[in-house]
């Protein structure tokens, strides 16, 4: 295997039904479904092996247990490094994944911080993965990024930090995502706007927003120029 062939991508993302039950986005099942579909497409575009662990595949009583067990499962398949992502970061791009794979091939560790104190991407070496230490991190708490960064710096030779991106946990996050609408696909953008409007939470839009999309916003189902894949 070549250096990148030893790396796999783990998409740790629940089903749309499970996301709907756990996140504060009313009527968002179609949004969650599309987020997972597009995330998987980005992952497959890297050419790396991709494994999707939804709620039916996860093992464990807590998020930390389920996430740790999923990573261990991929390493048990013989891969020497792994890139883990979720489905809730629309601005994640294939190029972020390719860059991470390159850093992993040089023996480094990679983290992509999210603006809520967690992370949207983690690039791990098998040699730096300790099940008990990983399991005991403060999962789903605001201090997670800080604590896991400290842990990774002790376990790895060099930690590479990607740009901070926003994830989607509630309707307030949907509003914030619209501030960076240029890097979203028209399909997902239209879905978010319709969802906010349906739920009565479309408070405001950038005054130039509809001007930018005046010819294609309602009809364009995705073009290469604005694709976020």
Tell me what you see in this structure.
This protein is of the alpha/beta class. It folds into 2 domains: 4-161, Alpha-Beta Complex (Spore Coat Polysaccharide Biosynthesis Protein SpsA, Chain A); 171-212, no CATH class. The protein contains 9 helices and 6 strands; from the N terminus they run βααβαβαββααβααα. It has helices at residues 16-22, 29-44, 63-75, 94-105, 131-135, 144-155, 171-177, 186-198, 209-212, and strands at residues 7-12, 50-53, 81-85, 109-113, 119-125, 159-161. The protein has a 6-stranded mixed β-sheet, sandwiched between helices. Strand 4 (109-113) and strand 5 form a beta hairpin. The two termini are 26 Å apart.
What does the overall shape look like?
Answer: globular
The CATH superfamily of the largest domain turns out to be: Spore Coat Polysaccharide Biosynthesis Protein SpsA, Chain A
Number of distinct helices: 9
Q: Distance between termini?
A: 26 Å
Q: Tell me the radius of gyration.
A: 18 Å
Largest beta-sheet characterization: 6 strands, mixed
Proper CATH architecture of the largest domain: Alpha-Beta Complex
Q: Determine the structural class based on helices, strands and strand pairing.
A: alpha/beta
What is the total domain count?
2
Sequence stretches where pLDDT stays below 50 over 5 or more residues:
204-229
Number of strands: 6
Strand content: 5-15%
Please, what is the average pLDDT? 80
Proportion in helices:
25-40%
CATH topology-level name of the largest domain = Spore Coat Polysaccharide Biosynthesis Protein SpsA, Chain A
Written as H for each helix and E for each strand, in order along the chain, the element string is EHHEHEHEEHHEHHH
């Amino acid at each position: 295997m070549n250096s990148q062939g030893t790396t796999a991508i783990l998409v740790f993302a629940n089903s749309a039904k499970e996301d709907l039950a756990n996140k504060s986005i009313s009527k968002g099942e179609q949004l969650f479904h599309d987020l997972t579909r597009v995330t998987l497409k980005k992952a497959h575009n890297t050419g790396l092996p991709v494994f999707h662990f939804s709620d039916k595949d996860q093992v464990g009583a807590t998020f930390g247990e389920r996430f740790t067990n999923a990573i261990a499962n991929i390493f048990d398949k013989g891969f020497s490094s792994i890139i883990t992502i979720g489905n809730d970061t629309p601005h994640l791009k294939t190029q972020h994944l390719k860059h991470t794979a390159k850093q992993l091939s040089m023996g480094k560790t990679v983290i992509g911080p999210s603006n809520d104190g967690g992370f949207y991407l983690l690039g791990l070496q098998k040699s730096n993965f300790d099940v008990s230490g990983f399991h005991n991190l403060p999962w789903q708490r605001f201090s997670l990024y800080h604590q896991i960064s400290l842990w990774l710096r002790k376990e790895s030779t060099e930690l590479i930090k990607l740009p901070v991106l926003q994830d989607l946990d509630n309707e307030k996050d949907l509003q914030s995502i619209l501030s960076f609408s240029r890097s979203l696909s028209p399909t997902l953008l239209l879905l978010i706007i319709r969802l906010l409007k349906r739920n009565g939470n479309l408070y405001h839009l950038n005054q130039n927003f509809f001007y930018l999309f005046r010819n294609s916003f309602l009809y364009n189902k995705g073009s290469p120029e604005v694709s976020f894949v």
